[in-house]
Automatic annotation (TrEMBL):
Transmembrane segments: none annotated. HAMAP family: His_ammonia_lyase. The lineage of its organism: Bacteria, Bacillati, Actinomycetota, Actinomycetes, Kitasatosporales. PANTHER family: HISTIDINE AMMONIA-LYASE. Its main location: cytoplasm. Signal peptide: none annotated. Coiled coil: none annotated. It holds the Pfam family Lyase_aromatic. This is Histidine ammonia-lyase. One of its GO terms (cellular component) is cytoplasm. Belongs to the PAL/histidase family. NCBIfam families: hutH, PRK09367.1. Gene3D superfamilies: Fumarase/aspartase (Central domain), Fumarase/aspartase (N-terminal domain).
């Protein structure tokens, strides 16, 4: 099994996905262990002094004015975890919780949080054992960290609360720790606060969404090309010289992908042979590279923000070992991550919208250039894909609602001490919903476009298009014919897109797409 080594200089998005989604093992490097010990020495020195230090010998948030004596500090750290583990609502997905925990471990290992090495080692052991704390949907405002979600994880390290075992069964966390030979942690100065004060949840969901969207944007280029082909459109709009004169990099990549799929097509270029010859294709076909390209450039910006955050040590207060200081700061504010989460939801909504317009065009006999109404076998007796488009339209409408930014919706908390928050967790949660919906929308376009191509009797599709059709049929998705129970076909098409089957089938012909 792949092993990810956590050092002092952050981690990569690939490592986060490997741990979160694929169960990669985690190891802490010797340099990280040394950095943990050095930072802890600073905390221990300050804890022995009479002067109050936030997070070490004071209360938290609006209660930071109270000095806490040595005899109560262990209780202070336990209590912040217990009281902040106040989430409500449905459970958050296992991969999100694993990403959150791994990213918190990454920050602990930076040597700027002041926890003892054994705290980090216990977190790594929990991840490696496949134990996943129960985290709830609601409880983070995306400022002062993803407080409730991280607190539920810290609670499990203490052997309290509930967690899911590697077998999927939810049990008391203490039982699961004992079953895997892991001792619960006993928190000391600053450690409770350090476990729950970071942007790890929203960042983890951003990285997982980027992994999904990379696949979906490539898939959308393929389905756009298939729709262009099925509509007998022209591939001349994909010429590199046309995109070079508007030099957005994502646009050029999308156009090149579409051109690669359409190479050798016997369907394209018939657009002037209708009774009323077309001078040009509709926007949803002709402007596909521009829309998908803008989304790709948005992904690149989001990756830049994510990479910066991956290199960060987000905590408050933060330990500066070289200076021997612990300083309060505002680095826990989730604005940078929240903005790009919202931006990605906007891009996903627009990509879904243009895909749905192409699907609708394929089904409308007045605009499909010779295809049967709704791609039905016997229109009137058969309804074809009429209601599949309804489902797609409902998903697009949902995406538009999810595109409303969460990051502008600050709400004050903690007796006005925390009077401006990012709502980044909420932005991340709605983006996950949007990504799922986008995958379904692309699947419906794929279902319609492949059927339409097969209905073009006497015309030979591009080799890559033919490969996509054949692979989809091999995946159990039926082609043209009388009406059938559509939901299983649509679900199979969704899985084919989500799992990368469409990309794999096409790239076996085209080579790697951008």
């Amino acid at each position: 099994m792949h092993t990810v080594v956590v050092g002092t200089s952050g981690t990569s998005s690939a490592d986060v996905v490997a741990v979160a989604r694929h169960g990669a093992r985690v190891e802490i490097s010797p340099e990280a262990t040394a950095a943990l010990a050095a930072a802890r020495a600073v905390v221990d020195t300050l804890a022995a002094k009479p002067e109050p230090v936030y997070g070490v010998s004071t209360g938290f948030g609006a209660l930071a004015t109270r000095h806490i004596g040595p005899g109560l500090r262990a209780a202070l750290q336990r209590n912040i975890v217990r009281s902040h583990a106040a989430g409500m609502g449905p459970r958050v997905e296992r991969e999100v919780v694993r990403a959150l925990m791994f990213l918190r471990l990454k920050t602990l290992c930076s040597g700027h949080t002041g926890v003892r090495p054994e705290i980090a080692e216990t977190m790594a052991a929990v991840l490696n054992a496949g134990i996943t704390p129960v985290v709830h949907e609601y409880g983070s405002l995306g400022c002062s960290g993803d407080l409730a979600p991280l607190s539920h994880c810290a609670l499990a390290l203490m052997g309290e609360g509930d967690a899911e075992g590697p077998d999927g069964e939810v049990r008391p966390a203490g039982e699961l720790l004992a079953a895997h030979g892991i001792g619960p942690v006993e928190l000391r100065e600053k450690e409770g606060l350090a476990l729950l004060n970071g942007t790890d949840g929203m960042l983890g969901m951003l990285l997982l969404a980027l992994d999904d969207l990379r696949r979906l944007y490539k898939s959308a280029d393929i389905t756009a090309a298939l729709s262009l082909e099925a509509l007998l459109g022209t591939e001349r709009v994909l010429a590199p010289e046309l995109h070079a004169i508007r030099p957005h990099p994502g646009q050029a990549v999308a156009a090149a992908n579409m051109a690669a799929v359409l190479k050798g097509s016997g369907l394209t270029g018939h657009y002037q042979q209708d009774e009323a010859p077309r001078v040009q294709d509709a926007y949803s076909v002709r402007c596909a590279p521009q829309v998908a390209g803008a989304g790709r450039d948005t992904l690149d910006h989001a990756r830049l923000v994510a990479d910066r955050e991956l290199a960060a040590a987000v905590d408050n207060p933060v330990v500066l070992p070289e200076a021997g200081r612990v300083e309060s700061n505002g680095n826990f504010h989730g604005a940078p991550v929240a903005y790009v989460l919202d931006f990605l939801a906007i891009a996903a909504a627009d990509l879904g919208s243009i895909a749905e317009r192409r699907t609708d065009r394929l089904l409308d006999k007045n605009r499909s250039h010779g295809l049967p109404p709704f791609l039905a076998d016997d229109p009137g007796v058969d309804s074809g894909l009429m209601i599949a488009q309804y489902t797609q339209a409902a998903l697009v409408s949902e995406l538009k609602r999810l595109a409303v930014p969460a990051s502008v919706d600050s709400i004050p908390s903690s007796a006005m001490q925390e009077d401006h928050v990012s709502m980044g967790w909420s932005a991340a949660r709605k983006l996950r919903t949007a990504v799922d919906a986008l995958g379904r929308i692309i699947a419906v376009e794929l279902y319609a476009a492949t059927r339409a191509i097969e209905l073009r009797d006497g015309l030979v599709p591009a080799p890559a298009s033919a490969a996509a059709v054949a692979a989809l049929r091999a995946a159990g998705v039926a082609g043209p014919g009388p009406d059938r129970f559509l939901a299983p076909d649509l679900a199979a098409a969704e899985g084919f897109v989500r799992d990368g089957g469409l990309i794999a089938a096409v790239e076996r012909v085209t080579g790697p797409l951008g």
